[in-house]
Automatic annotation (TrEMBL):
Record GO biological process: peptide catabolic process; proteolysis
Protein name stated in the entry: Aminopeptidase N
Organism: Flavobacterium cerinum
Family: Belongs to the peptidase M1 family.
Essential cofactor(s): Zn(2+)
Key words of the record: Aminopeptidase, Hydrolase, Metal-binding, Metalloprotease, Protease, Signal, Zinc
Positions of the Aminopeptidase N-like N-terminal domain: 58-229
Length: 637
């Protein structure tokens, strides 16, 4: 029986280790995909020359063949002047050639410059507030090095896809790509060889045989959309449709998948429906329910949340959950600057964790949070609200450790601090705010909704966890008093000097020798703060943050008791192992042995050890202290 239990425990631990590794790989793949076209970040800032007009409608009439790296077409833009205008500027790479610009059928003069601008001279001054339109005809080979427009193959069949976040839209069509304006309404017409299926945002309206071997497919999107979320794909797709939503807000989930993996993809995509139901229950109706949701299979790792159709390299549950979450956080409400990118990625990453919480249970969610904390605290610094200089770095903007994982865990800490009721109400209010819905938001606007719903002043929290760097390390000293109380002293050090003190509720679990548990959350605001806590038993052991709600690392616990028995925690462990000791115990030497009796590690004067390089298995630890020698054991997973 003991052998069977050991095998089951070992199997579960191996599963947890594999889960954490897969989770880390998923987030990194997502981050890498979403930075694919971000090479342009290094030489791009929001174009002030496009700031004098507001785009209200665009019609893209495109010709594309997935077997040829080339695009041509007409892009018609309806816009309102925000000031008196004599010229209008679009973002467009100079590797694409404009052959004509027309207004009401009349040719306009234009030039393309080295700043990747198309500058058009208007025939007369256009007064502020006046609506006008013009059509740009262009063609050429989009840049190969940007990954914003890609032609490739799958199983010998050609495939074309676009991936424009953050600044790649200009590499395949003339646009206005900032985080100020959204296109209010959109039509996309894709003319491609007749044997292929075309994909874009919104609902397919028609597909017509042109009689020359080509087919034109028309998509209409009637929700505001930023340029970087407009996308096309063309290949020999199979179409698999699911029905989602609840009456009266039902809508299709249209999946464009490779025929060679059709059956496998159908099985993997089945999880989309329960995830959609969960998000609608927690937040609100799917924000584009009058059109569709869906997936288009493409040849890159990770995914990209194009509005109403996520482009995906695979269909793992974590990736499906992340990209679907973006339809609320990123597509309906888009970060108002790239400095606020954590509002997109932190939310989407946290939603994938919420999926684990609801479908896999509390322990799996705790493991997910622990893996995130380990990644975040692998380095001492790093904030989630970027500086202007940070946005010039692709890797920093799309940092999986900070923008994704720390952003997600900051949201988790807000939920822990506020409670579920206030937290979820704040997010619902944020999503329904008429100033933000189908528009842009910045960090202070989220903070305002969190404060309004909770009644809390979150200024210090945001200063510490959003705008500044690092994490806390705690020393918690517990003293059993003789009057039915324990005294708890909390000390804190910070991994980065930008924060003087992390003011966050501290969760502590107090345990008796016979299995009784008493949990408390202490409102820790100052260093060496003392709390007197009534406990109906003598405390034999203490655990800090058992549910992994706090970003912290290296914390230690000491109990003031001469008969306190040392123990190792967490046990099992896969990274940092710590010793819980009485306050008066001093470790002189520690020796680690494997099950063969071989000495594998030895340290002096340490109470915390990095065991990440040890192989999986059982280890025995000899602690040589000022009070004698103690033999302990743990499992490395």
């Amino acid at each position: 029986m003991k052998k069977n239990f050991t095998f089951i425990l070992y199997s579960l631990l191996c599963f947890h280790c594999a889960f954490a590794q897969q989770q880390d790989n998923d987030v990194k793949q997502i981050a890498e995909a979403e930075m694919k076209s971000a090479y342009a970040i290094s030489n791009f800032t929001a174009n002030m020359n496009t700031g004098n007009y507001n785009v209200v409608y665009q019609r893209l009439e495109l010709q594309a063949d997935p077997a040829i790296h080339f695009i041509s077409g007409d892009v018609t833009t309806h816009y309102i002047a925000k000031e008196d205008m004599t010229q209008i500027t679009f973002d467009l790479t100079n590797q694409l050639t404009v052959s004509a610009v027309k207004r009401n059928g009349i040719d306009l003069s234009f030039l393309q410059n080295e700043n990747d601008e198309l500058v058009i001279t208007l025939p007369v001054t256009q007064p502020q507030g006046i609506l006008d339109s013009l059509t740009v005809t262009y063609s050429g080979e989009p840049p190969f090095d940007s990954d914003a427009f890609v032609t490739s193959q799958h199983a010998g069949a050609p495939v074309l896809w676009t991936l424009s976040e953050p600044y790649g839209a200009k590499d395949w069509w003339p646009c206005k790509q900032d985080l100020i304006d959204k296109v209010d309404k959109l039509d996309v017409y894709i003319t491609a060889p007749g044997e292929y299926i075309s994909v874009s945002n919104g609902l397919e309206q028609s597909h017509n045989d042109n009689g020359d071997g080509t087919k034109t497919t028309h998509f209409k999107h009637n929700y505001p959309i930023p340029a970087y979320l407009i996308a096309i794909a063309v290949s020999n797709y199979s179409i698999y449709t699911q029905q989602a939503g609840t009456v009266p807000n039902t809508f299709p989930i249209v999946n464009y998948i490779y025929p060679e993996t059709q059956e496998q993809s159908k099985q993997e995509l089945a999880v989309t429906l329960p995830i959609m139901d969960l998000y609608e229950q927690l937040f609100e109706t799917y924000p584009f329910h009058q059109e569709k949701y869906g997936h288009a299979q493409c040849g890159f790792g990770g995914g990209m949340e194009h509005t109403t159709v996520s482009f995906m390299g695979s269909f793992g549950r974590n990736l499906i959950a992340h990209e679907l979450g973006h339809q609320w956080f990123g597509d309906k409400i888009t970060c108002g600057s790239w400095k606020d990118i954590w509002l997109n990625e932190g939310f989407a990453t946290y939603l994938s964790g919420i999926v684990i919480e609801h479908f896999d249970g509390k322990d799996a969610f705790k493991n997910w949070k622990a893996a995130n904390i380990n990644d975040i605290t692998s380095q001492g610094g790093g904030y989630i609200y970027l500086t202007d200089a940070d946005t010039l770095s692709v890797s920093r903007t799309f940092s999986s450790r900070l923008t994704y994982n720390k952003g997600a865990m900051v949201l988790n800490m807000l939920r822990f601090k506020m409670g579920d009721t206030a937290f979820y109400q704040a997010i619902k209010n944020y999503l329904s705010d008429p100033e933000l819905a189908y528009s842009y938001a910045k960090t202070p606007q989220l903070q305002a909704h969190l404060e309004a719903a909770s009644g809390m002043d979150l200024t210090e929290f945001f200063n510490d966890w959003v705008y500044k760097e690092g994490y806390p390390t705690y020393t918690i000293i517990v003293d059993n008093l003789n009057d039915g109380n324990v005294k708890i002293l909390i000390k804190q050090t910070q991994s980065h000097p930008s924060v003087t003190y992390f003011e966050i509720p501290v969760p502590i679990q107090l345990n008796s020798a016979n299995g009784q548990v008493h949990s408390v959350v202490l409102d820790n605001t100052t260093n060496e703060q003392v709390f007197i806590v009534p406990v109906p038993f003598t405390v034999a052991s203490v655990a800090f943050d058992v549910d992994k709600n706090i970003i912290s690392a290296g914390s230690t616990i000491k109990i003031v008791s001469e008969d306190f028995k040392p123990h190792l925690y967490p046990n099992p462990s896969n990274s940092i192992l710590q010793a819980a000791l009485s306050e008066t115990t001093i470790v002189n030497e520690t020796i680690f042995y494997n099950t063969l009796g071989k000495r594998v590690m030895e340290t002096t004067n340490d109470t915390s050890w990095n065991i990440s390089r040890l192989a999986t298995g059982v280890y025995f630890v000899t602690l040589i202290t000022n009070k004698g020698t103690t033999q302990l054991s743990f499992f490395k997973n």
